[in-house]
């Protein structure tokens, strides 16, 4: 990782790793490409992603431009998934625009299906929310999914996110054609009340 932290996402400057009851979370590094490919390369994982590599060469070529927004999720020393955390600006009128800078984030995740049904994804995303609200002081996070990707939006609901929109045939899926989408969000005050 570069010693110049000015260009790094804010979460990368926090103390790592973060340990939960069963997981270890840490920022992804370039040498994580092979471990992440093990689940990212699975068709059932890639089916719901906006970008799914066509093969390992495609993954290796593109991963260096993406990894800075990823956290690796490990369980018992094995990489079982990754989380995306992309901090951005809110919307605001010109007079208050300064107050909207870097106050919200887009979240995403992928997990190895072999580890499903154990609550590990819920544990990882709850830890990610703690990073967003407690460590980074964000005011809002959101995550979107194809409406047909029920496991993803059910995870959003399990961690306390609320559905803000259901859009009809607004996203083009590579296999399913024009598809419905959902957007979920959580505010800092909702996070605090839930805890």
Rg for CA atoms: 17 Å
Question: How would you state the average pLDDT, rounded?
Answer: 95
Instruction: Assign a percent range to the helix content.
Output: 25-40%
Structural class: alpha+beta
Count of discrete structural domains: 1
β-strand number: 8
Describe the structure.
This protein has 6 helices and 8 strands, in the order E-E-H-H-H-E-E-E-H-E-H-E-E-H. Strand 5, helix 4 and strand 6 (140-146) form a beta-alpha-beta unit. It has a single domain (5-141), classed as Gcn5-related N-acetyltransferase (GNAT) (Aminopeptidase). It has helices spanning 33-40, 43-46, 56-62, 120-135, 150-158, 188-194, and strands at 18-19, 23-27, 70-75, 78-88, 104-111, 140-146, 162-173, 177-187.
Q: Any descriptors?
A:
alpha+beta; Aminopeptidase; 26% helix; 32% strand
Short structural summary:
This protein is of the alpha+beta class and 195 residues long.
Helix-strand layout with pairing:
Blueprint: E1 18-19, E2 23-27, H1 33-40, H2 43-46, H3 56-62, E3 70-75, E4 78-88, E5 104-111, H4 120-135, E6 140-146, H5 150-158, E7 162-173, E8 177-187, H6 188-194
Parallel strand pairs: 5-6
Antiparallel strand pairs: 1-2, 2-3, 3-4, 4-5, 6-8, 7-8
């Amino acid at each position: 990782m570069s010693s110049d932290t000015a260009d790094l996402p804010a979460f990368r400057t926090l103390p790592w790793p973060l340990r939960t009851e069963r997981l270890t979370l840490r920022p992804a590094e370039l040498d994580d490409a092979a471990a992440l490919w093990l689940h990212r390369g699975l068709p059932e994982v890639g089916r719901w992603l906006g970008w799914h590599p066509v093969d390992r060469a495609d993954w290796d070529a593109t991963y260096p431009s993406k990894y800075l927004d990823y956290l690796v999720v490990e369980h018992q020393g094995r990489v079982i998934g990754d989380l995306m955390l992309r901090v951005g600006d809110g919307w605001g009128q010109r007079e208050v625009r300064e107050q909207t800078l870097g106050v919200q984030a887009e979240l995403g995740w992928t997990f190895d299906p072999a580890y499903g049904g154990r609550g590990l994804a819920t544990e990882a995303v709850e830890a990610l929310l703690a990073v967003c609200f407690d460590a980074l002081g964000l005011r809002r996070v959101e995550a979107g999914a194809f409406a047909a990707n029920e496991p993803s939006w059910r995870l959003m609901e399990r961690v306390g996110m609320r559905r803000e929109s259901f859009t009809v045939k607004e996203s083009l899926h590579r296999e399913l054609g024009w598809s419905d989408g959902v957007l979920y969000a959580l505010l800092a005050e909702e996070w605090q009340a839930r805890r």
